[in-house]
Amino acid sequence: MVTNFNPMKETIKINLAGQLFDLDHDAYERLKHYLDSLEIKFGTTGDEGSEIIEDIEARIAEILQQKIDSKKQVISLEDVEEIIGLMGEPEQMEDNEDNGEEPESKGKQGFVKGTRRFYRDPQNRVFGGVCSGLAAYFNIDPIWIRLLFVFLFFAKLAGVLIYVILWIIMPPAKTTGQRLEMQGKSINLNDIEDSVKREFEKVKTSVKNIPKSKGFRNAENSASEILESLGNVLLVLLKVLGVIVIVSILVALVISFISFIAGGIQLAPWHIFHNWHWPHWHWNLHWPEFTFLNLCIFLVIAIPVFALIGKIFRWLFNIQSTNNFAKGIGATIWVLAFISLVFMVVAEKDNRLFREVNRSEYTLPLQDEKPLYVGIKNASIEDRSLEHYQIFNFRFSRDENDDEYLRNPEITIVESYTDAVEIKIEKSYALFHIGRIPESPDRMIDYSWHHNDTSLLLSKFYMCDEDDAWRLPNVSIEVKIPEGKTVYFDDEILSLFDIELTENVAYTMRNGGLKELMN
Q1: Which of 108, 354, 426, 448 makes an SS bond possible with 476, Cβ 3.0 to 4.6 Å?
Q2: What contacts 24+ positions apart, CB below 8 Å, involve 138-147?
Q3: Tally of domains in the chain
Q4: Could you say which DSSP state residue 445 is in?
């Protein structure tokens, strides 16, 4: 540990495991005392003790690095005490050894299992250490992982390719701390000492076998170096490709944002969206409402995309994320945009925001002195083979023979403010679609009706092609009856009304509603 005392700021700069840290005076004194005690404990055991101390310093440096962020640059005494509590005191190990007890694996806070990470295990390798590394991660015998790869190879399931890819992307466990992480063990004094001692024992045992395996090891090391070099090249190419993709997505998002605000949901500037057809300016919205709607849609889509891009970018370039404030702002904006979007869709009058609508109005030339008969046109469907479905409260049927979609229209009876019987038919379908441009609702939805001077006959079903059914087509019919007009209804038509009426009973329009005509 190299130190550089700065009396002006009451901090001391140290070099620990190749990394620079600023400590306040008390933290420096406590850490120095701790490292000196480690030197006394392990310094007399030669190379084994030196490696133990180096691994402990590397682990301490790793934890210290996690304590530093944009708001905190100086390590305090509390930070050092926390680290020592995690690592454990050398004196505790001596007491346990004198009493013949197992070394404790707990500091002040108590140890839980360490974080597991994927590493290759070069010390127990046959080729690249992939199988032994996976076995250490999952805490199973390496033989089972090796048998799995043998099976994948003979089953022609790209076992060799998978192994090579894992060899490239999995880093080797070079330090004692990495080996402990690979096994999911806590990184403290006891575990580091035990791991280093086991490694030295393996080295002593394997020295005798070096002449027998030297050629194999040389070939293996050469293959490992080649694959690692290939992995580094692929990683660089992956980073370059990632930057290109990220920049392309950002440019697309900027263009999309301008398009959303200036001209509605228009993704047509890119050829890839050539066959996507989105709603245009014929919506019944004023420009500020329309722009706000587009902004909400853009934010709901773009913020998760930005978050994913940021995560990929940090992963490619190994950048630690410390700006939680920006994450909180982004999450808040996304929630507000999502709530606003849901509110606008739900609160939109008549649900016309995302639907293409075609309205037709007709005036019926009826005889004033005669009553009007309202019934069903071609009510029988017995010759059809129908399958019935329901999505929430949306019911419909499918004709298996003609591949047609059938559904009952919505029929309402209201008062006419003229002296004539009028009928308004409204056909609509969901506006969002991919692929071919759909026909107008009037052409896509087939609905027939008939009238003469005394009757109005409405079809019980409207139909459309099965390929257009997912657009949720709908037909709404509004029959306007002038005040004083007498009306009869048959049983079939009454099943389509949202009010209770009696068949073949005379009704008359009075005060905005149908009243039963008393004899």
Answers
A1: 426
A2: 139/183, 139/184
A3: 4
A4: S
